[in-house]
Amino acid sequence: EDQVTQSPEALRLQEGESSSLNCSYTVSGLRGLFWYRQDPGKGPEFLFTLYSAGEEKEKERLKATLTKKESFLHITAPKPEDSATYLCAVQAGANSKLTFGKGITLSVRP
Amino acid sequence: GAGVSQTPSNKVTEKGKYVELRCDPISGHTALYWYRQSLGQGPEFLIYFQGTGAADDSGLPNDRFFAVRPEGSVSTLKIQRTERGDSAVYLCASSRPGETQYFGPGTRLLVL
């Protein structure tokens, strides 16, 4: 069974204080690892897809990396508008469904 | 362009009642997914359609849950004899085959 574990559950940062969010996964035949952002009361918003170990993708203050066991979402010099829940999900084997972690709630104080 | 839309945005019902939740996918997306998200949890897969047929319904929790997509576009998730434990946000996503899933805003279901 595919498993995704995200840590920490919650993270509070000061504006400008860089940090990383972790996503550990156990799957049989990874096809893709996905990062989504979710604001309160809204649906998940797509950020990145990573397909193979060593791959990196960047968007503004966010950078996602992938190894064979985990993915990191690095946030550089965060701003209050980066406050949200960040969800990690995997797609594996012949399945089209996504298996999600519980999410990491990020709060950035001005 | 227009994203995934879901109606209603909120639904309050009484235990034992029947509810229908609607999803309108992005135009041209043949794959459609339903997920359920409980408070403090990540979305949990329910069912996946490719075109009109359910390609994977392994996530439906029991036979009170049913979904249809008769013309390969709009989908309806149907819940019979609702229970308080069914209260959650029901999310719909759509994609081109094998590509990124894009989510709608969700329907917040509360069963009293």
Question: Which descriptors would you attach to this protein?
Answer:
heterodimer, A: 110 residues, mainly beta, 6-stranded mixed sheet, 5-stranded antiparallel sheet, globular, B: 112 residues, 7-stranded mixed sheet, 0% helix
Short description:
The complex is a heterodimer of chains A (110) and B (112). By secondary structure, chain A is mainly beta.
Question: In words, what does this structure look like?
Answer:
The complex is a heterodimer of chains A (110) and B (112). By secondary structure, chain A is mostly beta strands. Chain A is built from no helices and eleven strands. In chain A, the strands form two sheets. In chain A, strands 2, 4, 5, 9, 10 and 11 form a six-stranded mixed sheet that branches. The mean pLDDT of chain A is 96. Chain B is an all-beta fold and 112 residues long. Chain B contains no helices and eleven strands. Chain B has strands at 5-7, 10-13, 19-24, 31-37, 44-50, 53-56, 65-68, 75-79, 88-95, 102-103, 107-111. In chain B, strands 2, 4, 5, 6, 9, 10 and 11 form a seven-stranded mixed sheet that branches. Chain B has a four-stranded antiparallel sheet with strand order 1-3-8-7, with no helix packed on it. The chains are: A mainly beta (110), B mainly beta (112).
List the helices and strands and how they pair.
The complex is a heterodimer of chains A (110) and B (112).
Chain A: E1 3-7, E2 10-14, E3 19-26, E4 30-38, E5 45-50, E6 56-59, E7 62-66, E8 70-75, E9 84-92, E10 99-100, E11 104-109
Chain B: E1 5-7, E2 10-13, E3 19-24, E4 31-37, E5 44-50, E6 53-56, E7 65-68, E8 75-79, E9 88-95, E10 102-103, E11 107-111
Terminal residue distance of chain A = 41 Å
Report the portion of residues of chain A in β strands. Answer: over 45%
Nearest-angstrom radius of gyration of chain A? 13 Å
Supply Rg of chain B.
Answer: 13 Å
Q: Average the pLDDT over all residues of chain B and give the rounded result.
A: 96
- Give me the strand/helix succession of chain A: EEEEEEEEEEE
Number of helices of chain A: 0
